[in-house]
Specification:
mainly alpha, two-stranded antiparallel sheet, 18 helices, single chain
Length: about 425
């Protein structure tokens, strides 16, 4: 029933986003996904989705699936080349992966029965959900730019004084590192989904043997964060410091839309914030920082992995936080909200698996209250926060730290108690 309800809800969301995107002259997630079966696909996690689906396959089946996908892509590339069909850079491969996933869905319905059919359909659904999540996100970002002409960047930038304008500082530090530091952080920021797939594959490595999925894994957290986050974008539209206070980026606004060209070298003056109009191209995707939320989720889900995986999860989180600030995509207060948001979502999913015990309800309620308080303070108290940095800054960090502490404490209570090995009773020696 849970999988069925989730499927119906996802289908309803896709249809609604398709209709909304069509109103603005763009294809929605359903049309994009159908087109990707034949036409040159946009860069995205199509092969990542195939990799996730393959956790329900044996190794020979995985090799065959990968070979068929690559072969189909090679044929389609040759057909486009022979027909002189021009495609954009990076839009060459991916059709084969999608076609193989759809083929396995047909196999599950026609050639499998009982638990084996359910398991294969779950694998296919997991892979397709990853692909659909990316396309759904693109539609959401389009909708935020079209329906929210006024942004709250002046409010968030003013509130960011409480933390000492960390994006301005990180931007200058990143520029001082030169091309190497910029390239490394850009790679980490752009490949966050790849890191998540690697961690998910590690968590799901035993599915093919156990013939069942674990009750909780990273993909669930990733998808729920991506589902809920854009709704908050609509309530709290923010474009980010590089767009609101900097030179912008090619094709996504510019200085003509910025309040002032200050980022990252000139500290922002403390003035009364106002709503600010912005273009209909740049997504309003800053509050909260979903890159931060996803990076925190990766960190959490690598804690029980190998030493290398734990190190990689820590590195990816730290580097992602540095990139979000250093490239000017987010304010410091976005990151604080992103951490609270991620921990609250993770706690809710784990509490759902456990049956909503008292500790889970308290933690989710507290995280939700803190997150709401952060947004309210950014919107209605930014000037007071900027003028009293010595109080507001520590309070922000304390609020975030309290949610972190609550999650760690509750997660430890949820861990199965270690059963001490029973010491053997002394036996009388034979006479």
């Amino acid at each position: 029933m849970l999988w069925g309800t989730a499927g119906v809800g996802a289908l309803g969301l896709f249809v609604a986003l398709e209709i909304a995107a069509r109103r603005y002259g763009q294809p929605g997630p359903v049309a994009d996904q159908l087109a990707a079966a034949i036409f040159a696909p946009k860069p995205g996690p199509l092969y990542g989705g195939l990799a996730l689906m393959s956790v329900v396959l044996t190794w020979p089946q995985r090799i065959i699936a990968a070979g068929v996908a690559i072969g189909l892509d090679a044929v389609l590339v040759l057909v486009r080349w022979a027909a002189d069909i021009k495609v954009a850079d990076g839009h060459f491969f991916g059709n084969g992966a999608l076609l193989v996933m759809l083929g396995y869905a047909v196999i599950a319905v026609t050639r499998r029965t009982g638990p084996e059919r359910v398991l294969l359909l779950k694998g296919v659904g997991l892979g397709l959900l990853l692909v659909a999540g990316r396309k759904t996100g693109d539609s959401w970002l389009l909708i935020t730019s079209k329906t929210r002409p006024l942004v709250l960047d002046q409010y968030v930038a003013t509130a960011d004084h409480a933390l000492g304008n960390p994006s301005w500082l990180a931007g200058r530090l990143l520029q001082a590192t030169g091309p190497f530091g910029i390239h490394v952080l850009d790679l980490v920021y752009a490949k966050l989904a790849v890191a998540a797939i690697v961690v998910a594959l590690y968590q799901l490595r035993h599915v093919v043997v156990e013939r069942r999925f674990p009750s909780h894994h990273l993909v669930r957290t990733f998808l729920v964060i991506g589902l809920l986050g854009p709704g908050i974008y609509m309530l709290f539209p923010v474009v980010g410091p590089v767009f609101a206070y900097g030179p912008g980026a090619s094709g996504t606004g510019g200085v003509e839309w910025a309040a002032a060209n200050l980022w990252p070298h000139t500290p922002l003056p403390i003035t009364t914030p106002q709503l600010m109009p912005y273009d209909e191209i740049t997504p309003r995707n800053c509050m909260p920082s979903l890159h931060t939320a996803w990076a925190v989720a990766i960190f959490i889900h690598t804690r029980k992995g190998s030493r290398i995986l734990r190190f990689a999860g820590t590195f990816w989180m730290v580097a992602t936080l540095a990139a979000t600030l250093g490239f000017g995509y987010h304010y410091g207060v976005d990151l604080v909200a992103g951490v609270v948001f991620a921990l609250t979502v993770e706690a809710a999913l784990r509490a759902l698996d456990r049956g909503w015990d008292r500790q889970g309800i308290q933690l989710v309620a507290y995280g939700t209250a803190v997150f709401a308080a952060l947004l309210v303070s950014y919107r209605y108290l930014p000037l007071e926060m900027a003028r009293h940095q010595e109080v507001s800054g520590p309070l922000l960090i304390l609020a975030m730290a309290s949610v972190v502490y609550g999650y760690v404490r509750t997660a430890r209570l949820w861990e199965p108690a270690a059963v001490a090995a029973r010491r053997p009773e002394p036996q009388p020696e034979p006479v």
